[in-house]
Amino acid sequence: MQEPLEKKYSFPHRVFWILNIAAVIGLIFSYMASRISPDDIWWLALFGLGFGTLFVLNLGFIVLWRWRKSRKYLLSLVICVLGVGKIFDIAEPSIFRAKAPDLSRNIEPVKLMSFNVRLFDLYNWFHSDETRGKIFNFLREENPDIVCFQEFYTNNRKKPALNNKDALTRVLQAPYSHIEYTVSMHGTDYFGIATYSKYPIIRRGAHHFKKRGGN
């Protein structure tokens, strides 16, 4: 059925059609995000995160064009059908889910923490001499079994008060650690990432990115 000329070329019609094309392109990019590494095209990952929103948006355009009796709905329909399988990558229907065994009686819970300590306020960004002590008090109270630190810093020689490496071992009562330094200065100051654990670390490794970017 051919659309009336006044409807086909009206200003709102054109605006919705442009938005529809943009939504289709965004949805295609979200499909590509799962197949192309962020190391090659970093911004595609952003579209991957928006897959759900873009998919629903295209469904909305299908309804819109069907309501306006326009065959333009076919564009979004085809793109949605091509990517419908991706829905099951992020949301698995309960009927397909295998019943998980109850392991709560056999396994003790493990408390895991991820903490960006911002170099333990080495450069006094917070304008307080108590920041480092507050971080250690917080760790002592939370008492995690495993803790991963970003923006880790330690001074191993000239400044014992800033030897965070050994201090954390005592505070956390975690005898096992894996520390990777990405930057060192003067042979005394070390910057990187660290993992402390109360459990033995049976395997460890480091991944070095092609582009140097701090941590």
Can you tell me about this structure?
- The structure is a single chain.
- This protein is an alpha+beta fold and 215 residues long.
- It has helices at 5-8, 11-33, 44-49, 51-67, 73-82, 87-90, 131-142, 164-172, and strands spanning 112-116, 146-155, 176-185, 189-197.
- It has a four-stranded mixed β-sheet with strand order 1-2-4-3, covered by helices on one side.
- Strand 3 and strand 4 (189-197) form a beta hairpin.
- The relative contact order is 0.08.
- The mean pLDDT is 84.
Architecture blueprint of SSEs:
Elements lengths: L4 H4 L2 H23 L10 H6 L1 H17 L5 H10 L4 H4 L21 E5 L14 H12 L3 E10 L8 H9 L3 E10 L3 E9 L18
Parallel strand pairs: 1-2
Antiparallel strand pairs: 2-4, 3-4
Helix pairs in contact: 2-4, 2-5, 4-5
